[in-house]
Amino acid sequence: MEPRVRCGLEIHQMLDTEKKLFCSCPTYLRKDDPHFTFRRRLRLAKSEVGEIDPAALFEYEKGLSYLYEGYRENVCLVEMDEEPPHELNREALELALKFALMVGASVVDEVHVMRKIVIDGSNVTGFQRTALIAIGGSVEVNGKRVGIQTICLEEDAARKTGEVIEENALRYRLDRMGIPLIEVATAPDITSPEEAREVALRIGLLLRSLGKVKRELGAIRQDLNVSVEGGAKVEIKGVQYLDLIPKVVELEVKRQLALLEIRDELKRRGVTRDDLVFKPVDVTEIFRNTKSKVARKALEAGGRALALRLKGFAGLLGREVQPGRRLGTELSDRAKYWGRVGGLFHSDELPAYGISQEEVEAVKQALGVEQGDAFILIFDEPEKALRGLRAAYERALEALEGVPPETRAANPDGTTRFMRPRPGSARMYPETDIRPIRVTREYLEKLRQELPEPPEKTLERVMREYSLSREVAFQLFNMQRMYFFEEAVKKTGASPQVVATTLVNTLVSLRRENVPVENLSEERLLEVFRMVAEGSIAKEAIPDVLRELALNPEEQLENVLRRIGIERIDVDRLRAMIREVIAENKDYVLQKREKAFGKLMGVVMDKVRGRIDGSVVAKVLKEELESFISSS
């Protein structure tokens, strides 16, 4: 029997407005060194209702400081929290209102900006500004209506650029902070992994139809809320790729079902909360002469070895919950985040990693481990090891209940890892520095007349205007590349067939070869298409050029072309090369005559591939073959 799955989406689309949401800074990102830095620490405060948000408490207890980087051109005193926010960006508001009208949502009468507590360092203020724009509405996918719960307009956060280990600090760059985002949250109406992708595709296409949205990697981010019957609502953050959504949902369902099985097994074994007692034991002396490199390194640095017995957990810590991840991994994740330790060992995986059977037996004896029990073990500084052990212990207690509600981060392979506790309702309160904006019926009617054509109409028009087959056009549609395709053809003058083939075939093939095509921004692709249209690159060279650009994203295109030997050759030089090839194969040509074209075409293309168009090669080769044969 298939498990009952409930899934909702939160989609965040970065807008390509002229200015940021609450100031006049432009909305572009930079890669060069910042002009200035400053440091902050963020304090924990109660909300308007006198409560502390658990996610905020989690971040505060890490005890970190934050080093912020900025540029003079696109970071101002608003981002630095040295000046009150300006009025809400009307261009961004208009885009959010248009989207609300497109999905039939009910727009609010007044837009009020709220503060959402965020103290992980990604916002200098300690909160993110967000405004509710509309509620309700729906999108239709395969004949089914999926509800929209809320549509919000919010400021993007700073982007993390590194960690200063010795200073216990995180480094953030402020160029992204304040760029407007539309956040769309669906109802939990999605019931399968593939349906989640289809809903995300539909919402993504509607957002892109607005025109003024950013399209580089990370410009649209999908968060998932997933639960199975008997499980819990788990939020999964940061799914950037559309095609990864079904796998993330599928593997989260697998994880929750596995955790429910572990819960039931613990019940069958009669394990209760009273059986799990937090009594860490210092077992450092057992490992004084250990061969484990991890243990030896920690102990030589002044660390200790702390161990904890988990009654009734034998065989369960090693049980797989996702590919390559086990219940022990979940305990380790908690220890890493709360204790900032490197990880932990558990008895289901030992002896291993240099830890001997004798050492394992000694730890069991020190802890009083009995048949059916397990233990966990951490090597680190005493305080960190104790905090990590406490966090792992609390995660073990949650195993008795099944699936803990939490926020998790998506890994590139579709698995997930613990990120932080789920936020509570105590994280929102009014923004007093920004006046509300009234939304009139007349204004909404004006915007209704300016709505873009639906994506399906764009699909039909693109097929008709650019002579694309339905299969290719639908692939562009399904990959969210339809709008970029049309832009690329118009901006560069490249052949529609060349652009479409590159987007639906070449990039897919390169990804299958494990080439990091995510490094290819749309600006990079436009640059390549422009050079193809100008004749500087032959269309046959596109795969090689894109491969090198993906592997070397910071390198200039001209340098890449020079390095891989793709330099444009003219027809005269081509003709000379063809004559040489014919001369080298003259006996074959005279014997086969017209049939020699196929073989020689392959020889010539191997010599000139990427430096001149294949159609030109074919034309000149035919001319030279005819001339040679007629004169022989």
From TrEMBL:
<dbReference type="InterPro" id="IPR018027">
    <property type="entry name" value="Asn/Gln_amidotransferase"/>
</dbReference>
<dbReference type="InterPro" id="IPR004414">
    <property type="entry name" value="GatE"/>
</dbReference>
<dbReference type="InterPro" id="IPR003789">
    <property type="entry name" value="Asn/Gln_tRNA_amidoTrase-B-like"/>
</dbReference>
<dbReference type="Pfam" id="PF02934">
    <property type="entry name" value="GatB_N"/>
</dbReference>
<comment type="similarity">
    <text>Belongs to the GatB/GatE family. GatE subfamily.</text>
</comment>
<dbReference type="GO" id="GO:0050567">
    <property type="term" value="F:glutaminyl-tRNA synthase (glutamine-hydrolyzing) activity"/>
</dbReference>
<dbReference type="InterPro" id="IPR029351">
    <property type="entry name" value="GAD_dom"/>
</dbReference>
<dbReference type="InterPro" id="IPR023168">
    <property type="entry name" value="GatB_Yqey_C_2"/>
</dbReference>
<dbReference type="GO" id="GO:0006412">
    <property type="term" value="P:translation"/>
</dbReference>
<comment type="function">
    <text>Allows the formation of correctly charged Gln-tRNA(Gln) through the transamidation of misacylated Glu-tRNA(Gln) in organisms which lack glutaminyl-tRNA synthetase. The reaction takes place in the presence of glutamine and ATP through an activated gamma-phospho-Glu-tRNA(Gln). The GatDE system is specific for glutamate and does not act on aspartate.</text>
</comment>
<feature type="region of interest" description="Disordered">
    <location>
        <begin position="405"/>
        <end position="426"/>
    </location>
</feature>
<feature type="domain" description="Asn/Gln amidotransferase">
    <location>
        <begin position="483"/>
        <end position="625"/>
    </location>
</feature>
<protein>
    <recommendedName>
        <fullName>Glutamyl-tRNA(Gln) amidotransferase subunit E</fullName>
        <ecNumber>6.3.5.-</ecNumber>
    </recommendedName>
</protein>
<keyword id="KW-0547">Nucleotide-binding</keyword>
<dbReference type="InterPro" id="IPR042114">
    <property type="entry name" value="GatB_C_1"/>
</dbReference>
<dbReference type="GO" id="GO:0070681">
    <property type="term" value="P:glutaminyl-tRNAGln biosynthesis via transamidation"/>
</dbReference>
<dbReference type="GO" id="GO:0005524">
    <property type="term" value="F:ATP binding"/>
</dbReference>
<dbReference type="Pfam" id="PF02637">
    <property type="entry name" value="GatB_Yqey"/>
</dbReference>
<dbReference type="InterPro" id="IPR014746">
    <property type="entry name" value="Gln_synth/guanido_kin_cat_dom"/>
</dbReference>
<dbReference type="InterPro" id="IPR017958">
    <property type="entry name" value="Gln-tRNA_amidoTrfase_suB_CS"/>
</dbReference>
<dbReference type="GO" id="GO:0004812">
    <property type="term" value="F:aminoacyl-tRNA ligase activity"/>
</dbReference>
<dbReference type="GO" id="GO:0005737">
    <property type="term" value="C:cytoplasm"/>
</dbReference>
<keyword id="KW-0436">Ligase</keyword>
<comment type="subunit">
    <text>Heterodimer of GatD and GatE.</text>
</comment>
<dbReference type="InterPro" id="IPR006075">
    <property type="entry name" value="Asn/Gln-tRNA_Trfase_suB/E_cat"/>
</dbReference>
<keyword id="KW-0067">ATP-binding</keyword>
<dbReference type="InterPro" id="IPR004115">
    <property type="entry name" value="GAD-like_sf"/>
</dbReference>
<dbReference type="Pfam" id="PF02938">
    <property type="entry name" value="GAD"/>
</dbReference>
<dbReference type="InterPro" id="IPR017959">
    <property type="entry name" value="Asn/Gln-tRNA_amidoTrfase_suB/E"/>
</dbReference>
<keyword id="KW-0648">Protein biosynthesis</keyword>
